[in-house]
Amino acid sequence: MASAEILSIGTELLLGQVLDTNSQFIATELAKLGIDSFFRTTVGDNVARIKEVFQTALRRADIVIATGGLGPTADDLTHECIAELFGVEMVFDEAVFERIKSLFASLKYKMPESNRKQAFRPAGAQILPNPAGTAPGIIWKIDKQECNRIRAKPPKTILTFPGVPRELKAMWHETAAPFLSQNYSEGVTWSRELKHYGIGESALAEKYAHLLALPSPTVAPYAGRWECRLRVTAKAPTVESAMALAKPVIDEIMRDSGTLCYGLDDETLESVVGDLLTKTGKSLAVAESCTGGLVSERLTDIPGSSNYIKLNVVSYANEAKQELLGVSEEVLAAHGAVSAESAEQMAKGIKKLAKSDLGLSVTGIAGPTGGTPEKPVGLVYLGLAANDFYTGKELRLPSRLSRADIRLRSANEALNMVRLFLLEWAVPSAETSR
Amino acid sequence: MASAEILSIGTELLLGQVLDTNSQFIATELAKLGIDSFFRTTVGDNVARIKEVFQTALRRADIVIATGGLGPTADDLTHECIAELFGVEMVFDEAVFERIKSLFASLKYKMPESNRKQAFRPAGAQILPNPAGTAPGIIWKIDKQECNRIRAKPPKTILTFPGVPRELKAMWHETAAPFLSQNYSEGVTWSRELKHYGIGESALAEKYAHLLALPSPTVAPYAGRWECRLRVTAKAPTVESAMALAKPVIDEIMRDSGTLCYGLDDETLESVVGDLLTKTGKSLAVAESCTGGLVSERLTDIPGSSNYIKLNVVSYANEAKQELLGVSEEVLAAHGAVSAESAEQMAKGIKKLAKSDLGLSVTGIAGPTGGTPEKPVGLVYLGLAANDFYTGKELRLPSRLSRADIRLRSANEALNMVRLFLLEWAVPSAETSR
């Protein structure tokens, strides 16, 4: 089995100014490809030390994957260090330079002189194209002679990426992953995440203790931000055989979790709600207060959401709740804007205003100020109105939570409320009506 | 100046199943103490490899700080590896064991037999107490004789922590930081970030090339998500002297960057806009289409935003734009919903609807579908209306950007538009009127 080492290059990483999420991404991707990884090293923008970690990594691993240090500034040194280590020249790549120039031209910016530096690569290395930015990386399959120079056993491969996560990911998926898969992958590791909402990690682990004890496929629980995931991982020679190995376990979890399992892998509460709205042909409108647009933003983050979202309102002030949504003077006076009654009028009001099938409301106190003994920070009311249906929910979130966490948790609960409604009510009726 | 190396121990880190935030925490804390850090290594739960990284780190650095591998299970090996490396016994610590037992008793749990393992420490090492969990770490000032065994130059110090971030932080603040400060700290490292919007990293680096070349204070550029930061870092015996050292450089950048520099350190575009709205006593209302609530969500993420935000509208459908915001049939027919004309009517319409001082609008095509040759994905119009003022802006973002990126970039531009307006127009007039 081939092994890879990840090198993260940048003083900002060493100083803790930037959190290294790139290494995690690459590590996960390597695991999928069935490539081992035993060490990972972070080093600052220093020639001697960068060379030292490359040398060490190249002796230990078949593949060395470096991120960072490809920018246009003087402290971006990765390619220079690789060239020095192997005693090769840096050569100017005309095609890369043209690409950088045209990128600046398309953005109508003047190309700074410093970007010229990004068109150089160590002689012998291939360019690893960057579809999302100016800095390309390299893929270098290093031959025997060059390996001898650093006393490493050939063959070795170096891949480099810029530190910008978006660019790195684009380069990985487009070029690096196919390259590694073709050259190094022995068998595959296939995994599927079963995302749960409304059950804690320990409860989930207890429920599926018998699966967590399996040697193959492996099942592991992960706690997220008020959600939990069960990851089922199978190793086999092909994707098909790995999937077949995992299938009985996945089927069992999906059956036993029921609606607690809201989706798979990259699915989110909002994407699942979007799918259900599309499937049922229903439209949704949101009136939110304490979440300030978060529910709307998440729902509309899904491509095609304009098919089921026409209008959402962020009604921060009472006046907006009254005038636009028709929350009554009486309800505001008797119960206040943060109340079950207000949530109900908001949900019904936005449904009417937007002429939608469903109206969803969120009103609460996100803090850090604005709480009272009767209505503390963390008190949130949700409402969901359909033509002949209304349901409300009161959340009493811990007031020690941050404003951002109260907003996030409230939005999750609101989205989950719509999901459960559509699953339990709208989907069967839609199917019946076929 | 003393140097430290951080070792992160755990196969879950190598596989990318867990993001290593502990290293970032420790790195930031070391920088505050003025302790250098040149390498950081991650290794899995494997005796030979853990010993190898300890040996390498102890040769290079004065202090080695390890996290992880202190749990009760068989793959928690950190202390065992340290003992093996130095050829010392593992000794049972009665006081630690009593503490673990009493912790379980207080939680009314039966102590699993496996937790007994956590009461062992390498002979010669002191216990680093864990106020927040069962696993203590160690502080070990290693003497000459033991350093000789691994051919490292004395004195060396090892500190170990469990991988649970909450426990690590408690131990750090209570014991490790005071210990390091007393034994190793030579002055402090103080830094400030100057956040820029509307200038690229290379252009910023070019503009301040003379500052980037300074040996002290150091100035370094970082590219973020369509923003750039200049970080000024000064090392000195005290915080006061470090700040004094950095001040002339910070003053120069703030003067020369002008409105390109939007804020410092933790400030965001939305927090700066919030401060300016508060300072000028103006209120703002947002009508957004392609950003789907993102501008609203960011503005209301700021505590106290209910003082200047009363109502925002996400007008996804044309009908909503017409009925609620008063975008005219004629404009929609002649120019479409994504047009400068529509943005203007949206901005003026939301201002009127919300009775606010300022009305901000965003309408565009976030993709991935919905683009045409005339109106491609990435075409976005912004509008900002005040009583006697209107300004519009057309963005032609690269259509290769993701939906999320187009939304993010559009929201940044919209927030920056409000910022510049308030800075250049509202703030001076508000000051004149005093």
How would you describe the overall organization of this protein?
Two copies of one chain form a homodimer. The first copy, chain A, is α/β, with parallel strands linked by helices. Chain A has three domains: 3-183, MoaB/Mog-like domain (Molybdenum Cofactor Biosythetic Enzyme, Chain A, 3-Layer(aba) Sandwich); 188-264, Alpha-Beta Plaits; 269-432, Maf protein. Chain A has helices spanning 11-14, 22-33, 47-60, 78-86, 94-106, 144-149, 165-183, 201-207, 209-212, 239-257, 269-280, 294-300, 318-325, 329-335, 340-354, 403-432; strands spanning 3-9, 36-43, 63-67, 90-92, 120-122, 126-128, 137-142, 156-161, 188-196, 218-223, 228-236, 261-264, 284-288, 311-315, 358-364, 379-386, 389-396. In chain A, the strands form four sheets. Chain A has a six-stranded mixed beta sheet, sandwiched between helices. In chain A, helix 3 crosses helix 4 and helix 11 packs parallel to helix 16. Chains A and B meet through helix 1, helix 2, strand 2, helix 3 and helix 12 of A and helix 2, strand 2, helix 3, helix 8 and strand 10 of B.
Please give the count of helices of chain A.
16
User: CATH superfamily assignment of the largest domain in chain A?
Assistant: MoaB/Mog-like domain
The third-level CATH topology of the largest domain in chain A is: Molybdenum Cofactor Biosythetic Enzyme, Chain A
What is the overall silhouette of chain A?
A: elongated
Oligomer: homodimer
Widest sheet: strand ordering of chain A: 2-1-3-8-7-6
- Which residue ranges of chain A are poorly predicted, with pLDDT under 50 across at least 5 consecutive positions? 429-434
Specify the CATH architecture of the largest domain in chain A. 3-Layer(aba) Sandwich
How would a textbook summarize the main sheet of chain A?
A: 6 strands, mixed
What's the total number of strands of chain A? 17
- Helical fraction of chain A: 40-55%
Mean pLDDT of chain A: 92
